[in-house]
Design goal:
two-stranded antiparallel ribbon, 78 residues, elongated, alpha+beta, single chain
Length: 78
C-alpha cells in the first residue's frame, strides 16, 4: 500500500523513508521548482536528501521532450 500525503510526514513501507507533501517544502524550494518549471516548460520537483544533497526530477511526456532536456543541459543546438 502506498503512503498518502496529507500535509504531514507519512512513514514509508518499513524502509525508514518518509514522504513529504508539497506543503512541507519551504518557500525557497517551491520558488526554485516554479522557476525551473517555467524555464523548461516541464514539471520539476526537488527533494532534499541528507545534508546539502538531494534529487532533482524533471518529468517528460515523450522522447521529444527528453531530447529537449538533453539539448538544454548540454548546450547542443536545437
Amino acid at each position: 500500500m502506498q503512503p498518502v500525503a496529507t500535509g504531514r510526514v507519512v512513514r514509508g513501507g518499513g524502509d525508514g523513508s518518509t514522504t513529504r507533501s508539497p506543503q512541507d517544502k519551504d518557500a525557497d524550494t517551491r520558488a526554485f521548482e516554479r522557476d525551473l518549471t517555467d524555464a523548461l516548460g516541464l514539471k520539476v520537483e526537488i527533494k532534499h536528501g541528507s545534508g546539502e544533497s538531494g534529487y532533482l526530477t524533471v518529468q517528460y511526456g515523450n522522447y521529444e521532450q527528453l531530447d529537449y532536456i538533453r539539448k538544454r543541459l548540454t548546450g547542443a543546438p536545437s
